[in-house]
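JOB MANIFEST
job_type = single_chain_structure
chain_count = 1
residues = 486
[input]
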Amino acid sequence: MRFAVVEQARNRLALILVVLFVPLWTTLAFEVVARLPLRFYVRPVGRHVVMDGNILTQVTGALQALALVVGFMMFVATARSVLFDRRLVQAGYPRSCLAVAKCSSLVLVAAAVAVYATAWVHLFWRPVQPVVFAAGMFTGALVYGGIGIVLAAVLRSELAGMFLAIMISSIDLLLQNPLINPNADSALVRYLPAYGAVQSSVAAAGLHGVPWSGLLLGAGWALGTAALGMAAFAVRTRTHSAAVVVGVGVRAELSEPGWQGLWVSEQGTAGMDSAEHASGPAHLGHAAREFRSASRGEAPVAWLVSEGFEPKNWMVFLTVLLGWHADGFAGAGWGLFAAVFTAVLPTLILGFGERHHYWGDRQVRRRQDRVVAAPGVLASVIVGTALLFVLGAPSEVSALVAAMLAVLLALLVITFSWKVSVHAAVAAGANVILVSVFGPWAGLLVPVVALIGWSRIRLRCHTAAQVIVGAITGATVGGVAFGLLR
């Protein structure tokens, strides 16, 4: 944690931007822009607010300045420390601790610059709710801090990172300023990253009601970008270890079901985590025999249940069923369209990673590998969710996919430190959604969730606690998200 904070303090260019660029940009916006009254629709409270154009521009300009500064700071810190972080991981330092340090430094930096920007705005005018105003600035800074970490995973040049941060934030914030875009209250604007932050800040500037939905939306974007950033960080610090040795000169064949636990089962992960730090291949061989997953021949019923109720099968079933319920054949077509992004593409991504040895098997049972696989799967679901909302798909289908996206993000956050059952999470979330759509009779599927949990335990892919936590996470996060978005 201390090293992560020191890294931020050593970035002199970013500190200069904080000290000079934030006040310069907000001052120019207030003094130069015409003070024409503009109507701004505050969606969280469902009403328009009339504010001077220079004040609205100062609010969006402050958010853009924070986005640039925090995004650039996190990009530079992550890019410069990647080699050191990878060496720490290779030496046995927990990647989860490094991720927590990155997140903590992001929170501290975002909070500091948000308070600084709020204090500077107070020199010109006083927001009606200064604390809520600072909270809106804080969520906007968090969102672009996460984006900066993601960019560090795919870019090598600091100039390229700065350029992309400028482009993304400019498109995002300029489109939400009614002085520049008369159609700033368009429905499409709601899907921009800083939308919740802008809505919260403007509402806090001129209204007394707390914009809870805007703050929650901003927090959701912040959590999502931070989770993607941490997943990208895990990819950058991934180490290419040699093949696991079962005996002297003998390599375990990962394609054999009985040896999958050596590489990817949860019990195997726990066993190999301790075995990797032991000396000698004999110890590895003992761990392999003790912690390998159950083969198809050992537990045929459990294998059948686990394979039949995979998350991708649930998503195909649910998207088509809810689409049919919403709009007949046309709705079922929308369901198939959604299934492409929630089942087909994720399956292809996981298969690609398995073939190229990025992870052990298609179900990605090793916890560390799940963090590496998450960005591709999340990208597919995020694109699908955006297309469904933008193209006007039935609300039940769009809400279903968005709810499962929320479940995936929650599971990813947990996975940084502990593994939970995705099978149980998706099944439990599906059950809650079916009950909310079709009524209590759908609750008869609860035993199916229990059967799926039993199969994962029987196959030694999860412990009972991991199944229970996964089911609770899927039911609560999926059910609440579906209810809010439906």
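[summary]
The mean pLDDT is 78.
Strands lie at 37-42, 47-52, 245-247, 250-251.
exit_status = 0
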